[in-house]
Amino acid sequence: MSNPNFVILFVDNPVASGEFYAGLFGCKPVEASPTFALFALDSGLKLGLWSRHAAEPVPTGTGGGGEIAFTRGAEADVDATHAAWKARGLKIIQEPTMMDFGYTFVAVDPDGHRLRVFTPAKVA
């Protein structure tokens, strides 16, 4: 069985979304055009940003239905990421909070896709 290693988000404007994620990831896309941007991340994951207006078959819905999770090592790292993203102007839809799975907050990208940052709860 294969493990997924490529995620595609349907976006309104791949150029703008590419710039947004380049700022988050600290790297440029390995491929960029008016209809598609591709990031090849150090983790091995590939993230594609495909224009919802050019994708075939045309995606249904209005977007923003996905979530990308970023793991951090400690609660202080979650707080530091929260402060940095807030300073960059990202819309925060959940302030840092403790949940059953760990300490977390959630921001959104320009298309409403959720960006969750968390550190897993310590197992007793």
Descriptive account of the structure:
By secondary structure, this protein is of the alpha/beta class. The protein folds into 2 domains: 6-51, Signal recognition particle alu RNA binding heterodimer, srp9/1 (2-Layer Sandwich), CATH 3.30.720; 67-120, 2,3-Dihydroxybiphenyl 1,2-Dioxygenase, domain 1, CATH 3.10.180. It is built from 2 helices and 8 strands, in the order E-H-E-E-E-E-H-E-E-E. The strands form 2 sheets. A 4-stranded mixed sheet has the order 1-4-3-2, covered by helices on one side. A hairpin with a 3-residue loop joins strand 2 (31-32) and strand 3. The longest helix has 13 residues, at 75-87. It is globular, with a radius of gyration of 15 Å.
Briefly summarize what is shown:
With 124 residues, the protein is of the alpha/beta class.
CATH topology of the largest domain: 2,3-Dihydroxybiphenyl 1,2-Dioxygenase, domain 1
The portion of residues assigned to helices is: 10-25%
CATH top level assignment of the largest domain:
Alpha Beta
Q: End-to-end distance, in Å?
A: 32 Å
Large-scale geometry: globular
Q: Give the strand order of the largest sheet, numbering strands 1, 2, ... along the chain.
A: 1-4-3-2
Strand and helix order: EHEEEEHEEE
Q: What portion of residues belong to β-strands?
A: 35-45%
CATH superfamily of the largest domain: 2,3-Dihydroxybiphenyl 1,2-Dioxygenase, domain 1
Indicate the mean pLDDT.
92
Number of strands: 8
Sketch the major β-sheet.
4 strands, mixed
